[in-house]
Amino acid sequence: MNQPGSSPITLFRARLWIGLGEPCDRRALFLAWFETRGEAAHPYIIFQYTLSGWGYYKENKTLSKVTPGMAFIAHVPSNHHYYFPPESEHWSFFWLLIRHPYIVSRFVKQIQDFGALLHIEADSILIKRAVEVLEHIYAPVPYDSFVEEENLFRFLIEYERSLFNQRYPQAERERLLQHVRSYVLRTLPQAVGVEALAEIYNMSRSAFSHHFKTITGHPPAQYMTQVRLEEATSQLIYTHQRLEDIALATGFANATHFCKAFRRHFQLSPTAFRRQMRSSSERSKQ
User: Fold this and answer.
1) Quick one: how far is CA 159 from the chain centroid?
2) Class of the 9-167 domain?
3) Closest by alpha carbon to 95, among 8, 174, 29, 170?
4) What is the predicted pLDDT for the residue at 22?
5) Which residues are within 8 A (CB) of 154 and not within 5 positions of it... i.e. 6 or more apart?
6) Phi, psi of 89, rounded to the nearest 5 degrees
7) What is the topology classification, in CATH, of domain 170-285?
8) Cα separations (Å) of 91 from 8, 28, 48, 86?
9) Where are the domains of the chain?
10) In what order do the strands lie in the sheet with 55-59?
11) CA atoms within 13 Å, Cβ hemisphere of 263
């Protein structure tokens, strides 16, 4: 069964439709295949990656040309459409239509934060994950819903990673994170604040906070607390120190302050964390 106005190979599952090919009827492609209406109670997303040629994607009043190496993620229902214009000689692509409710909700959030369009290298891990989804559905073996769901989650995670790395380039991000991490660890047990780091960078506190979040995606105070908590986890695992001593050694005012910060970050208490890690270690030795 093919989509209207197209000549792809198309297959359907309850939570996933896939296709590979190119449109053969411009009017049918515009009016029928790329339908933007849908039930709000049953949303889905369409991922389409251009292999050759080009077409248009329009969201609200913004029109974008989609060329080879570009993809879009369309949320249905929403105010968008995409089409094969008369001036384009051809438009070849593959597409995934995903109905998995939780995965759709994650994609919708990313569309809201990063937009619908992105550039993806053909040899990227993200395209490899998309091809894995395609290959599993096309494979001449018994259908396995668990493998399908696993592949969809792997695709989702790599999509989120790609967006994050495009907005926050990895080399610059890691360089800044490592510098701040080293500074926080070097100055323990003192709990240095954002002001001290801002001074090193010859910036005001607000300017440095904006700079740090722009580069890394994290507020600096939150990351600095995370570094101190990670150091605390090492002491919980590898030492028998009291919570009060660990708290003071890692820049917290007291054990109460430390426990609140630890529970907020890890969703369990330091005592429970220590007990679980030691129990796991003992089982591994048996």
Assistant:
1) 6
2) mainly beta
3) 8
4) 65
5) 129, 132
6) -70, -40
7) Arc Repressor Mutant, subunit A (1.10.10)
8) 12, 14, 11, 11
9) 9-167, 170-285
10) 62-66, 55-59, 80-83
11) 10
Contact 71, 50 (CB under 8 A): yes
| Separation CA 130–CA 96 (nearest Å) | 8
What pLDDT, in 10s, does the model give residues 217-260?
999 999 999 999 999 999 999 999 999 999 999 999 999 999 99
Dist CA 59 CA 78 (whole Å)? 8
Sheet holding 9-12, edge to edge: 9-12, 16-21, 91-98, 44-53, 70-76, 117-119
Is-contact 162 124, C-beta < 8 A? yes
Residue 53's φ and ψ, nearest 5 degrees, are 70, -160
pLDDT in tens, 61-104: 899 999 999 999 999 988 888 888 899 998 999 999 999 999 99
Residue 207: predicted pLDDT: 97
